[in-house]
Protein backbone atom coordinates (compact mmCIF):
# COMPACT_ATOMS: atom_id res chain seq x y z
CA UNK A 1 0.00 0.00 0.00
CA UNK A 2 1.41 3.35 -0.92
CA UNK A 3 1.26 6.12 1.66
CA UNK A 4 1.57 8.92 -0.87
CA UNK A 5 -1.17 11.56 -0.73
CA UNK A 6 -4.19 11.23 -2.94
CA UNK A 7 -3.52 12.78 -6.33
CA UNK A 8 -6.15 15.50 -6.12
CA UNK A 9 -4.93 16.58 -2.69
CA UNK A 10 -1.36 17.11 -3.75
CA UNK A 11 -0.31 20.76 -3.68
CA UNK A 12 0.95 20.38 -7.26
CA UNK A 13 -2.56 19.36 -8.33
CA UNK A 14 -4.32 22.18 -6.54
CA UNK A 15 -1.77 24.62 -7.95
CA UNK A 16 -2.80 23.47 -11.41
CA UNK A 17 -6.47 23.87 -10.48
CA UNK A 18 -5.79 27.45 -9.45
CA UNK A 19 -3.80 28.08 -12.60
CA UNK A 20 -6.65 26.70 -14.69
CA UNK A 21 -9.22 28.84 -12.88
CA UNK A 22 -7.19 31.92 -13.74
CA UNK A 23 -6.56 30.84 -17.34
CA UNK A 24 -8.27 33.03 -19.92
CA UNK A 25 -5.62 33.40 -22.60
CA UNK A 26 -6.44 32.76 -26.22
CA UNK A 27 -3.83 31.23 -28.49
CA UNK A 28 -4.02 34.43 -30.50
CA UNK A 29 -2.80 36.38 -27.45
CA UNK A 30 -0.17 33.82 -26.53
CA UNK A 31 1.41 33.99 -29.98
CA UNK A 32 1.11 37.78 -30.14
CA UNK A 33 2.85 38.12 -26.78
CA UNK A 34 5.73 35.80 -27.59
CA UNK A 35 7.26 35.95 -31.08
CA UNK A 36 9.55 33.04 -30.16
CA UNK A 37 6.80 30.72 -29.08
CA UNK A 38 6.88 28.63 -32.24
CA UNK A 39 10.61 27.98 -31.83
CA UNK A 40 10.53 27.49 -28.08
CA UNK A 41 7.68 25.01 -27.91
CA UNK A 42 9.18 22.40 -30.19
CA UNK A 43 10.96 19.20 -29.29
CA UNK A 44 13.07 17.18 -31.71
CA UNK A 45 13.32 13.45 -31.17
CA UNK A 46 15.11 11.37 -33.77
CA UNK A 47 13.32 12.16 -37.01
CA UNK A 48 10.26 13.64 -35.33
CA UNK A 49 9.67 17.34 -35.01
CA UNK A 50 7.02 17.78 -32.36
CA UNK A 51 5.46 21.21 -32.24
CA UNK A 52 3.41 21.87 -29.12
CA UNK A 53 3.20 25.63 -29.49
CA UNK A 54 -0.53 25.50 -30.30
CA UNK A 55 -1.41 24.37 -26.79
CA UNK A 56 -3.21 26.29 -24.10
CA UNK A 57 -0.10 26.61 -21.99
CA UNK A 58 2.55 29.11 -21.03
CA UNK A 59 5.86 28.61 -19.23
CA UNK A 60 4.11 28.59 -15.88
CA UNK A 61 1.66 25.87 -16.99
CA UNK A 62 4.52 23.72 -18.19
CA UNK A 63 6.45 24.25 -14.97
CA UNK A 64 3.41 23.31 -12.87
CA UNK A 65 2.80 20.20 -14.95
CA UNK A 66 6.46 19.23 -14.52
CA UNK A 67 6.09 19.66 -10.79
CA UNK A 68 3.15 17.26 -10.84
CA UNK A 69 5.26 14.75 -12.80
CA UNK A 70 8.07 15.08 -10.29
CA UNK A 71 5.73 14.73 -7.32
CA UNK A 72 4.16 11.58 -8.76
CA UNK A 73 7.63 10.21 -9.53
CA UNK A 74 6.99 9.46 -13.18
CA UNK A 75 10.70 9.02 -13.81
CA UNK A 76 11.00 6.66 -10.83
CA UNK A 77 8.34 4.38 -12.33
CA UNK A 78 9.97 4.75 -15.75
CA UNK A 79 13.27 3.52 -14.34
CA UNK A 80 11.49 0.63 -12.62
CA UNK A 81 9.92 -0.34 -15.94
CA UNK A 82 13.22 -0.28 -17.85
CA UNK A 83 14.86 -2.21 -14.99
CA UNK A 84 12.34 -5.02 -15.21
CA UNK A 85 10.57 -4.48 -11.88
CA UNK A 86 7.15 -6.07 -11.67
CA UNK A 87 5.23 -2.85 -12.17
CA UNK A 88 2.18 -4.67 -13.55
CA UNK A 89 0.95 -5.21 -10.02
CA UNK A 90 -2.28 -7.11 -10.48
CA UNK A 91 -0.65 -9.64 -12.78
CA UNK A 92 2.64 -9.56 -10.90
CA UNK A 93 4.62 -9.12 -14.12
CA UNK A 94 7.50 -7.09 -15.43
CA UNK A 95 6.69 -4.72 -18.28
CA UNK A 96 9.56 -5.06 -20.68
CA UNK A 97 8.47 -4.34 -24.22
CA UNK A 98 11.53 -2.08 -24.27
CA UNK A 99 13.73 -5.20 -24.00
CA UNK A 100 12.28 -6.41 -27.32
CA UNK A 101 14.14 -3.65 -29.12
CA UNK A 102 17.25 -3.52 -27.02
CA UNK A 103 20.70 -3.73 -28.62
CA UNK A 104 22.20 -7.25 -28.69
CA UNK A 105 24.80 -6.33 -26.07
CA UNK A 106 22.29 -4.82 -23.62
CA UNK A 107 21.56 -6.56 -20.35
CA UNK A 108 17.97 -6.63 -19.10
CA UNK A 109 17.31 -9.02 -16.27
CA UNK A 110 14.10 -10.72 -15.28
CA UNK A 111 14.44 -12.81 -12.11
CA UNK A 112 18.21 -12.64 -12.44
CA UNK A 113 18.31 -13.81 -16.06
CA UNK A 114 19.37 -11.62 -18.96
CA UNK A 115 16.48 -11.81 -21.46
CA UNK A 116 18.25 -10.03 -24.33
CA UNK A 117 19.99 -13.10 -25.86
CA UNK A 118 16.60 -14.86 -26.01
CA UNK A 119 15.04 -11.84 -27.73
CA UNK A 120 17.72 -11.84 -30.40
CA UNK A 121 17.60 -15.61 -30.84
CA UNK A 122 13.88 -15.32 -31.69
CA UNK A 123 14.54 -12.37 -34.00
CA UNK A 124 17.15 -14.48 -35.81
CA UNK A 125 14.73 -17.41 -36.11
CA UNK A 126 12.04 -15.05 -37.45
CA UNK A 127 14.52 -13.54 -39.91
CA UNK A 128 15.50 -16.93 -41.24
CA UNK A 129 11.88 -17.96 -41.67
CA UNK A 130 10.89 -14.62 -43.24
CA UNK A 131 13.75 -14.88 -45.72
CA UNK A 132 12.69 -18.40 -46.67
CA UNK A 133 9.10 -17.36 -47.28
CA UNK A 134 10.15 -14.25 -49.22
CA UNK A 135 12.58 -16.16 -51.41
CA UNK A 136 10.21 -19.04 -52.09
CA UNK A 137 12.49 -21.53 -50.31
CA UNK A 138 9.70 -22.29 -47.83
CA UNK A 139 7.10 -24.14 -49.85
CA UNK A 140 3.64 -25.36 -49.04
CA UNK A 141 2.56 -28.99 -48.75
CA UNK A 142 2.24 -29.48 -52.52
CA UNK A 143 5.63 -27.85 -53.21
CA UNK A 144 4.17 -24.57 -54.42
CA UNK A 145 5.74 -21.43 -53.04
CA UNK A 146 3.84 -19.34 -50.48
CA UNK A 147 2.19 -16.30 -52.02
CA UNK A 148 -0.35 -15.42 -49.35
CA UNK A 149 0.17 -14.79 -45.65
CA UNK A 150 -2.86 -14.63 -43.34
CA UNK A 151 -2.31 -13.43 -39.79
CA UNK A 152 -4.98 -14.65 -37.39
CA UNK A 153 -5.02 -12.80 -34.06
CA UNK A 154 -6.96 -10.14 -32.19
CA UNK A 155 -6.18 -7.04 -30.12
CA UNK A 156 -2.44 -6.68 -29.71
CA UNK A 157 -1.91 -9.81 -31.80
CA UNK A 158 -3.58 -8.15 -34.79
CA UNK A 159 -3.65 -4.37 -34.57
CA UNK A 160 0.12 -3.80 -34.58
CA UNK A 161 1.03 -5.94 -37.59
CA UNK A 162 -2.13 -4.91 -39.49
CA UNK A 163 -1.47 -1.21 -38.85
CA UNK A 164 2.24 -1.44 -39.66
CA UNK A 165 1.60 -3.45 -42.83
CA UNK A 166 -0.60 -0.59 -44.08
CA UNK A 167 1.86 2.03 -42.89
CA UNK A 168 4.81 0.43 -44.63
CA UNK A 169 3.14 -0.85 -47.78
CA UNK A 170 5.68 0.82 -50.07
CA UNK A 171 8.37 -1.28 -48.36
CA UNK A 172 6.50 -4.58 -48.69
CA UNK A 173 7.09 -7.47 -51.07
CA UNK A 174 4.33 -6.53 -53.48
CA UNK A 175 4.22 -10.01 -55.02
CA UNK A 176 2.94 -11.42 -51.74
CA UNK A 177 -0.62 -10.96 -50.44
CA UNK A 178 -1.16 -10.20 -46.75
CA UNK A 179 -4.47 -10.43 -44.92
CA UNK A 180 -5.32 -9.92 -41.26
CA UNK A 181 -8.20 -11.80 -39.68
CA UNK A 182 -9.37 -10.88 -36.19
CA UNK A 183 -13.15 -10.85 -35.94
CA UNK A 184 -14.92 -14.01 -34.78
CA UNK A 185 -17.57 -13.10 -37.36
CA UNK A 186 -16.96 -15.86 -39.91
CA UNK A 187 -17.26 -13.26 -42.65
CA UNK A 188 -13.80 -11.96 -41.75
CA UNK A 189 -12.03 -15.24 -42.51
CA UNK A 190 -14.33 -15.91 -45.48
CA UNK A 191 -13.43 -12.63 -47.15
CA UNK A 192 -9.75 -13.08 -46.33
CA UNK A 193 -9.38 -16.49 -47.97
CA UNK A 194 -12.14 -16.73 -50.59
CA UNK A 195 -9.83 -15.84 -53.48
CA UNK A 196 -6.72 -17.60 -52.16
CA UNK A 197 -5.22 -20.93 -53.15
CA UNK A 198 -4.71 -23.04 -49.99
CA UNK A 199 -1.58 -24.58 -51.53
CA UNK A 200 0.00 -21.10 -51.57
CA UNK A 201 -1.31 -19.84 -48.22
CA UNK A 202 0.50 -19.58 -44.90
CA UNK A 203 -1.47 -18.96 -41.70
CA UNK A 204 0.22 -17.23 -38.81
CA UNK A 205 -1.73 -17.86 -35.62
CA UNK A 206 -0.80 -15.02 -33.30
CA UNK A 207 -1.91 -15.29 -29.70
CA UNK A 208 0.08 -14.60 -26.58
CA UNK A 209 -2.06 -16.93 -24.49
CA UNK A 210 -3.26 -19.22 -27.29
CA UNK A 211 -6.58 -19.41 -25.49
CA UNK A 212 -8.33 -16.39 -27.01
CA UNK A 213 -11.63 -17.72 -28.29
CA UNK A 214 -11.82 -15.53 -31.42
CA UNK A 215 -8.35 -16.53 -32.55
CA UNK A 216 -8.61 -20.23 -31.77
CA UNK A 217 -12.03 -20.41 -33.46
CA UNK A 218 -10.73 -18.68 -36.60
CA UNK A 219 -7.55 -20.77 -36.61
CA UNK A 220 -9.62 -23.96 -36.36
CA UNK A 221 -11.79 -22.85 -39.28
CA UNK A 222 -8.72 -21.88 -41.29
CA UNK A 223 -7.29 -25.34 -40.65
CA UNK A 224 -10.51 -26.94 -41.98
CA UNK A 225 -10.41 -24.65 -45.04
CA UNK A 226 -6.81 -25.63 -45.70
CA UNK A 227 -7.37 -29.35 -45.26
CA UNK A 228 -10.49 -29.26 -47.43
CA UNK A 229 -8.47 -27.57 -50.15
CA UNK A 230 -5.50 -29.90 -49.90
CA UNK A 231 -7.23 -33.27 -49.83
CA UNK A 232 -7.45 -33.61 -46.05
CA UNK A 233 -3.86 -34.59 -45.41
CA UNK A 234 -3.11 -33.67 -41.78
CA UNK A 235 0.60 -33.31 -42.38
CA UNK A 236 -0.15 -30.31 -44.63
CA UNK A 237 -0.73 -28.30 -41.46
CA UNK A 238 2.99 -28.25 -40.64
CA UNK A 239 3.81 -26.43 -43.91
CA UNK A 240 0.93 -23.95 -43.70
CA UNK A 241 0.60 -23.04 -40.02
CA UNK A 242 2.99 -21.29 -37.69
CA UNK A 243 2.27 -19.91 -34.23
CA UNK A 244 3.38 -16.85 -32.30
CA UNK A 245 2.81 -17.41 -28.64
CA UNK A 246 4.10 -17.71 -25.09
CA UNK A 247 2.19 -20.98 -24.64
CA UNK A 248 4.07 -23.92 -26.20
CA UNK A 249 1.72 -26.48 -24.66
CA UNK A 250 -1.42 -25.00 -26.21
CA UNK A 251 0.33 -24.51 -29.55
CA UNK A 252 1.29 -28.19 -29.66
CA UNK A 253 -2.21 -29.14 -28.52
CA UNK A 254 -3.61 -27.25 -31.50
CA UNK A 255 -1.49 -29.38 -33.81
CA UNK A 256 1.20 -26.87 -34.73
CA UNK A 257 4.75 -28.20 -34.76
CA UNK A 258 6.71 -26.58 -31.89
CA UNK A 259 9.51 -25.98 -34.43
CA UNK A 260 7.06 -23.66 -36.17
CA UNK A 261 6.43 -21.67 -33.05
CA UNK A 262 8.02 -18.27 -32.51
CA UNK A 263 8.19 -17.55 -28.84
CA UNK A 264 7.73 -14.50 -26.72
CA UNK A 265 7.39 -13.98 -23.01
CA UNK A 266 5.16 -13.31 -20.08
CA UNK A 267 6.83 -9.94 -19.50
CA UNK A 268 5.49 -8.59 -22.81
CA UNK A 269 1.97 -7.17 -22.56
CA UNK A 270 -0.38 -8.08 -25.41
CA UNK A 271 -0.84 -4.50 -26.61
CA UNK A 272 2.91 -3.89 -26.39
CA UNK A 273 3.86 -7.08 -28.26
CA UNK A 274 4.03 -5.82 -31.82
CA UNK A 275 7.85 -5.83 -31.93
CA UNK A 276 8.05 -9.35 -30.52
CA UNK A 277 7.38 -12.47 -32.63
CA UNK A 278 3.90 -10.95 -33.12
CA UNK A 279 5.55 -8.88 -35.84
CA UNK A 280 6.36 -11.94 -37.98
CA UNK A 281 3.78 -11.16 -40.69
CA UNK A 282 5.22 -7.66 -40.97
CA UNK A 283 8.75 -9.02 -41.08
CA UNK A 284 7.78 -11.29 -43.98
CA UNK A 285 6.21 -8.28 -45.69
CA UNK A 286 9.07 -5.80 -45.31
CA UNK A 287 12.02 -8.15 -44.78
CA UNK A 288 14.22 -8.64 -41.70
CA UNK A 289 16.46 -5.67 -42.41
CA UNK A 290 13.59 -3.19 -42.53
CA UNK A 291 12.07 -4.82 -39.45
CA UNK A 292 15.30 -4.16 -37.57
CA UNK A 293 15.18 -0.52 -38.72
CA UNK A 294 11.72 -0.36 -37.17
CA UNK A 295 13.11 -1.72 -33.90
CA UNK A 296 15.92 0.84 -34.07
CA UNK A 297 13.27 3.56 -34.29
CA UNK A 298 11.56 2.23 -31.17
CA UNK A 299 14.90 2.08 -29.37
CA UNK A 300 15.77 5.64 -30.27
CA UNK A 301 12.65 6.94 -28.54
CA UNK A 302 13.12 4.53 -25.61
CA UNK A 303 16.55 6.07 -25.07
CA UNK A 304 15.12 9.55 -25.39
CA UNK A 305 12.42 8.80 -22.82
CA UNK A 306 14.97 7.20 -20.50
CA UNK A 307 17.56 9.96 -20.68
CA UNK A 308 16.18 13.28 -21.93
CA UNK A 309 15.69 15.97 -19.28
CA UNK A 310 12.11 16.48 -18.19
CA UNK A 311 11.59 19.79 -19.99
CA UNK A 312 12.69 18.29 -23.34
CA UNK A 313 11.26 14.82 -22.85
CA UNK A 314 8.66 14.37 -25.58
CA UNK A 315 6.57 11.52 -24.13
CA UNK A 316 6.53 13.31 -20.77
CA UNK A 317 5.42 16.57 -22.36
CA UNK A 318 2.70 14.97 -24.46
CA UNK A 319 1.46 12.95 -21.48
CA UNK A 320 1.30 16.05 -19.30
CA UNK A 321 -0.51 18.07 -21.96
CA UNK A 322 -3.16 15.35 -22.13
CA UNK A 323 -3.53 15.54 -18.35
CA UNK A 324 -3.89 19.32 -18.51
CA UNK A 325 -6.92 18.99 -20.81
CA UNK A 326 -8.45 15.81 -19.38
CA UNK A 327 -8.17 16.76 -15.73
CA UNK A 328 -8.36 20.55 -15.75
CA UNK A 329 -10.42 21.44 -18.84
CA UNK A 330 -12.84 18.49 -18.77
CA UNK A 331 -11.79 17.20 -22.21
CA UNK A 332 -13.18 13.71 -22.66
CA UNK A 333 -11.47 12.68 -25.84
CA UNK A 334 -8.31 12.97 -27.86
CA UNK A 335 -8.22 12.91 -31.65
CA UNK A 336 -5.29 11.48 -33.62
CA UNK A 337 -5.47 12.72 -37.20
CA UNK A 338 -2.74 11.46 -39.54
CA UNK A 339 -2.32 13.23 -42.86
CA UNK A 340 -1.07 10.03 -44.45
CA UNK A 341 -3.14 7.43 -46.17
CA UNK A 342 -0.64 4.85 -45.00
CA UNK A 343 -1.48 5.62 -41.37
CA UNK A 344 -5.14 4.76 -41.88
CA UNK A 345 -5.03 2.17 -39.09
CA UNK A 346 -2.76 4.08 -36.76
CA UNK A 347 -5.51 5.54 -34.58
CA UNK A 348 -7.24 2.17 -34.25
CA UNK A 349 -3.93 0.77 -33.03
CA UNK A 350 -3.60 3.61 -30.52
CA UNK A 351 -7.11 2.98 -29.24
CA UNK A 352 -6.03 -0.34 -27.77
CA UNK A 353 -2.69 1.01 -26.59
CA UNK A 354 -4.25 3.95 -24.78
CA UNK A 355 -7.75 2.86 -23.81
CA UNK A 356 -6.89 -0.69 -22.71
CA UNK A 357 -3.97 0.72 -20.71
CA UNK A 358 -5.54 3.72 -19.07
CA UNK A 359 -9.25 2.88 -19.03
CA UNK A 360 -9.12 2.33 -15.27
CA UNK A 361 -11.07 3.71 -12.32
CA UNK A 362 -9.16 2.38 -9.34
CA UNK A 363 -5.65 3.38 -8.38
CA UNK A 364 -2.71 1.04 -8.00
CA UNK A 365 -3.85 0.23 -4.45
CA UNK A 366 -7.39 -0.59 -5.60
CA UNK A 367 -9.00 2.61 -4.32
CA UNK A 368 -11.53 4.35 -6.55
CA UNK A 369 -10.07 7.39 -8.26
CA UNK A 370 -11.90 10.71 -8.17
CA UNK A 371 -10.00 12.11 -11.13
CA UNK A 372 -10.46 11.46 -14.81
CA UNK A 373 -8.20 8.81 -16.36
CA UNK A 374 -7.69 7.78 -20.02
CA UNK A 375 -9.46 9.72 -22.79
CA UNK A 376 -11.53 8.33 -25.62
CA UNK A 377 -9.03 8.12 -28.46
CA UNK A 378 -10.41 8.44 -31.95
CA UNK A 379 -9.70 9.70 -35.44
CA UNK A 380 -9.14 8.79 -39.06
CA UNK A 381 -6.89 10.23 -41.75
CA UNK A 382 -7.22 14.00 -41.63
CA UNK A 383 -8.55 15.07 -45.00
CA UNK A 384 -11.38 12.54 -44.83
CA UNK A 385 -12.20 13.74 -41.33
CA UNK A 386 -12.33 17.34 -42.56
CA UNK A 387 -15.40 16.43 -44.60
CA UNK A 388 -17.00 14.50 -41.77
CA UNK A 389 -16.45 15.43 -38.12
CA UNK A 390 -14.07 18.41 -38.13
CA UNK A 391 -17.14 20.68 -38.10
CA UNK A 392 -17.73 19.58 -34.50
CA UNK A 393 -14.12 20.16 -33.51
CA UNK A 394 -14.18 23.68 -35.00
CA UNK A 395 -17.61 24.91 -33.99
CA UNK A 396 -19.08 22.36 -31.58
CA UNK A 397 -19.25 22.77 -27.83
CA UNK A 398 -16.52 20.31 -26.88
CA UNK A 399 -12.83 20.76 -26.33
CA UNK A 400 -11.02 18.09 -28.34
CA UNK A 401 -7.24 18.20 -28.28
CA UNK A 402 -5.80 16.68 -31.44
CA UNK A 403 -2.56 15.39 -32.88
CA UNK A 404 -1.86 16.21 -36.52
CA UNK A 405 0.74 13.90 -38.05
CA UNK A 406 2.32 14.49 -41.44
CA UNK A 407 5.37 13.92 -43.60
CA UNK A 408 7.38 16.22 -45.84
CA UNK A 409 7.79 13.71 -48.65
CA UNK A 410 5.33 11.44 -50.41
CA UNK A 411 6.46 7.86 -50.97
CA UNK A 412 8.91 7.32 -53.80
CA UNK A 413 6.81 4.95 -55.84
CA UNK A 414 4.03 7.45 -56.58
CA UNK A 415 4.13 8.89 -60.09
CA UNK A 416 4.94 12.58 -60.46
CA UNK A 417 1.35 13.74 -60.71
CA UNK A 418 0.39 11.91 -57.52
CA UNK A 419 3.52 13.14 -55.77
CA UNK A 420 2.47 16.68 -56.63
CA UNK A 421 -0.72 16.16 -54.62
CA UNK A 422 1.37 15.91 -51.48
CA UNK A 423 1.71 19.65 -51.03
CA UNK A 424 -2.07 19.96 -51.11
CA UNK A 425 -2.39 17.23 -48.51
CA UNK A 426 0.06 18.97 -46.20
CA UNK A 427 -1.45 22.39 -46.87
CA UNK A 428 -4.61 20.93 -45.37
CA UNK A 429 -2.76 19.76 -42.27
CA UNK A 430 -1.17 23.16 -41.68
CA UNK A 431 -4.42 24.98 -42.44
CA UNK A 432 -6.34 22.89 -39.95
CA UNK A 433 -3.82 23.47 -37.17
CA UNK A 434 -4.01 27.19 -37.93
CA UNK A 435 -7.82 27.35 -38.13
CA UNK A 436 -8.21 25.33 -34.94
CA UNK A 437 -5.79 27.52 -33.02
CA UNK A 438 -6.64 30.99 -34.27
CA UNK A 439 -10.17 30.65 -35.61
CA UNK A 440 -11.83 33.62 -37.28
CA UNK A 441 -13.22 36.47 -35.27
CA UNK A 442 -16.59 38.12 -35.82
CA UNK A 443 -14.72 41.26 -36.93
CA UNK A 444 -12.84 39.29 -39.55
CA UNK A 445 -16.08 37.78 -40.78
CA UNK A 446 -17.79 41.20 -40.93
CA UNK A 447 -14.83 42.65 -42.81
CA UNK A 448 -15.61 40.16 -45.58
CA UNK A 449 -19.02 41.79 -45.98
CA UNK A 450 -20.98 38.92 -44.48
CA UNK A 451 -24.57 39.83 -43.49
CA UNK A 452 -24.85 40.43 -39.74
CA UNK A 453 -27.27 37.55 -39.10
CA UNK A 454 -24.76 35.15 -40.64
CA UNK A 455 -21.81 36.38 -38.60
CA UNK A 456 -22.25 34.04 -35.59
CA UNK A 457 -22.54 31.04 -37.89
CA UNK A 458 -19.36 31.89 -39.73
CA UNK A 459 -17.27 32.76 -36.71
CA UNK A 460 -14.67 30.29 -35.46
CA UNK A 461 -13.73 30.79 -31.85
CA UNK A 462 -10.41 28.94 -32.31
CA UNK A 463 -8.30 28.15 -29.24
CA UNK A 464 -8.46 24.41 -30.00
CA UNK A 465 -5.16 22.80 -29.00
CA UNK A 466 -3.15 20.65 -31.39
CA UNK A 467 0.24 18.98 -31.46
CA UNK A 468 1.83 18.78 -34.90
CA UNK A 469 4.21 15.88 -35.49
CA UNK A 470 6.23 16.25 -38.66
CA UNK A 471 8.86 13.93 -40.14
CA UNK A 472 10.63 13.79 -43.47
CA UNK A 473 9.01 10.54 -44.57
CA UNK A 474 7.24 7.51 -43.21
CA UNK A 475 10.00 4.89 -42.97
CA UNK A 476 10.12 1.79 -40.74
CA UNK A 477 12.30 3.67 -38.27
CA UNK A 478 9.94 6.65 -38.16
CA UNK A 479 6.99 4.35 -37.57
CA UNK A 480 8.86 2.76 -34.65
CA UNK A 481 9.62 6.20 -33.26
CA UNK A 482 5.98 7.25 -33.48
CA UNK A 483 4.68 4.13 -31.76
CA UNK A 484 7.24 4.32 -28.95
CA UNK A 485 6.36 8.00 -28.48
CA UNK A 486 2.72 7.09 -27.86
CA UNK A 487 3.58 4.03 -25.74
CA UNK A 488 5.58 6.20 -23.37
CA UNK A 489 3.03 9.01 -23.41
CA UNK A 490 0.41 6.51 -22.22
CA UNK A 491 2.88 5.31 -19.58
CA UNK A 492 3.41 8.85 -18.29
CA UNK A 493 -0.30 9.44 -17.92
CA UNK A 494 -0.86 6.15 -16.08
CA UNK A 495 2.02 7.00 -13.75
CA UNK A 496 0.59 10.42 -12.86
CA UNK A 497 -2.91 8.98 -12.41
CA UNK A 498 -1.42 6.23 -10.24
CA UNK A 499 -3.23 3.47 -12.13
CA UNK A 500 -1.98 0.12 -13.38
CA UNK A 501 -1.62 0.72 -17.12
CA UNK A 502 -0.61 -2.85 -17.78
CA UNK A 503 -3.53 -5.05 -16.82
CA UNK A 504 -6.84 -5.31 -18.68
CA UNK A 505 -9.37 -6.90 -16.35
CA UNK A 506 -12.10 -4.88 -18.01
CA UNK A 507 -12.03 -7.28 -20.94
CA UNK A 508 -12.80 -10.34 -18.82
CA UNK A 509 -16.46 -10.01 -17.85
CA UNK A 510 -17.74 -9.87 -21.41
CA UNK A 511 -15.65 -12.92 -22.33
CA UNK A 512 -17.08 -14.97 -19.46
CA UNK A 513 -20.66 -13.92 -20.17
CA UNK A 514 -20.32 -14.68 -23.90
CA UNK A 515 -19.29 -18.22 -23.04
CA UNK A 516 -22.30 -18.54 -20.76
CA UNK A 517 -24.78 -17.16 -23.29
CA UNK A 518 -23.52 -19.06 -26.33
CA UNK A 519 -25.27 -22.38 -25.51
CA UNK A 520 -28.57 -20.49 -25.28
CA UNK A 521 -28.08 -19.33 -28.86
CA UNK A 522 -26.86 -22.58 -30.35
CA UNK A 523 -28.83 -25.19 -28.42
CA UNK A 524 -31.56 -23.17 -26.77
CA UNK A 525 -30.13 -24.13 -23.39
CA UNK A 526 -31.50 -22.44 -20.28
CA UNK A 527 -29.01 -19.93 -18.94
CA UNK A 528 -29.61 -19.56 -15.21
CA UNK A 529 -29.67 -16.06 -13.85
CA UNK A 530 -30.00 -14.28 -17.19
CA UNK A 531 -31.48 -10.79 -16.74
CA UNK A 532 -34.85 -10.20 -18.37
CA UNK A 533 -33.56 -7.86 -21.10
CA UNK A 534 -30.84 -10.25 -22.26
CA UNK A 535 -33.23 -13.23 -21.97
CA UNK A 536 -35.73 -11.42 -24.23
CA UNK A 537 -32.98 -10.58 -26.74
CA UNK A 538 -31.83 -14.21 -26.80
CA UNK A 539 -35.42 -15.38 -27.36
CA UNK A 540 -35.92 -12.85 -30.17
CA UNK A 541 -32.64 -13.89 -31.75
CA UNK A 542 -33.62 -17.56 -31.70
CA UNK A 543 -36.98 -16.79 -33.22
CA UNK A 544 -35.52 -14.62 -36.00
CA UNK A 545 -32.86 -17.19 -36.72
CA UNK A 546 -35.53 -19.82 -37.48
CA UNK A 547 -37.74 -17.65 -39.73
O1 LIG B 1 -8.18 -7.58 -25.19
C1 LIG B 1 -7.56 -8.33 -24.19
C2 LIG B 1 -6.31 -8.99 -24.69
O2 LIG B 1 -5.76 -9.74 -23.67
C3 LIG B 1 -5.28 -7.99 -25.22
O3 LIG B 1 -4.54 -7.39 -24.24
C4 LIG B 1 -4.54 -8.84 -26.16
O4 LIG B 1 -3.80 -8.07 -27.05
C5 LIG B 1 -5.66 -9.60 -26.83
O5 LIG B 1 -6.58 -9.84 -25.79
C6 LIG B 1 -5.27 -10.88 -27.51
O6 LIG B 1 -4.73 -11.80 -26.62
P1 LIG B 1 -3.88 -13.03 -27.11
O7 LIG B 1 -2.68 -12.53 -27.81
O8 LIG B 1 -3.53 -13.80 -25.88
O9 LIG B 1 -4.74 -13.85 -28.05
From TrEMBL:
GO terms for biological process: gluconeogenesis; glucose 6-phosphate metabolic process; glycolytic process. Keywords: Cytoplasm, Gluconeogenesis, Glycolysis, Isomerase. InterPro entries: G6P_Isomerase, G6P_Isomerase_C, Phosphoglucose_isomerase_CS, SIS_dom_sf, SIS_PGI_1, SIS_PGI_2. CDD domains: SIS_PGI_1, SIS_PGI_2. Its EC number is 5.3.1.9. It is an enzyme of class 5 (isomerase). It is found in: Cytoplasm. Pathway: Carbohydrate biosynthesis; gluconeogenesis; Carbohydrate degradation; glycolysis; D-glyceraldehyde 3-phosphate and glycerone phosphate from D-glucose: step 2/4. The active site is at 356 (proton donor), 387, 511. Its main location: cytoplasm. GO terms for molecular function: carbohydrate derivative binding; glucose-6-phosphate isomerase activity; monosaccharide binding. It catalyses: alpha-D-glucose 6-phosphate = beta-D-fructose 6-phosphate. GO terms for cellular component: cytosol. Catalyzes the reversible isomerization of glucose-6-phosphate to fructose-6-phosphate. PANTHER family: GLUCOSE-6-PHOSPHATE ISOMERASE. Belongs to the GPI family. This is Glucose-6-phosphate isomerase. The lineage of its organism: Bacteria, Bacillati, Actinomycetota, Actinomycetes, Kitasatosporales. The gene is pgi1.
Amino acid sequence: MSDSPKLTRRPQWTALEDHRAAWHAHLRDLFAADPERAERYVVLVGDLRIDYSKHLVNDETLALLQELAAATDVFGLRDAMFRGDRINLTEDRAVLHTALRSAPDAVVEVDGENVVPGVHAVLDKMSDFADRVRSGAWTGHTGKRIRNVVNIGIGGSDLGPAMAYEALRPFTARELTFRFVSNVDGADLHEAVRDLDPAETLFIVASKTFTTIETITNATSARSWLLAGLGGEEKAVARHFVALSTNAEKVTGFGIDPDNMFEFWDWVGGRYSFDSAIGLSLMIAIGPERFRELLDGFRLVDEHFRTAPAEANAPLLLGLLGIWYGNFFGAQSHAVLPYSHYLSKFTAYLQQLDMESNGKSVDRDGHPVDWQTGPVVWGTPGTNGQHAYYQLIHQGTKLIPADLIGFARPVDELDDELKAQHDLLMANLFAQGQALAFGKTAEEVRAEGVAEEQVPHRTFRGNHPTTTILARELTPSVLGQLIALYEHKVFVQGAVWNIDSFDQWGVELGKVLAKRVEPALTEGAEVPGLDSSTAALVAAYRELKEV
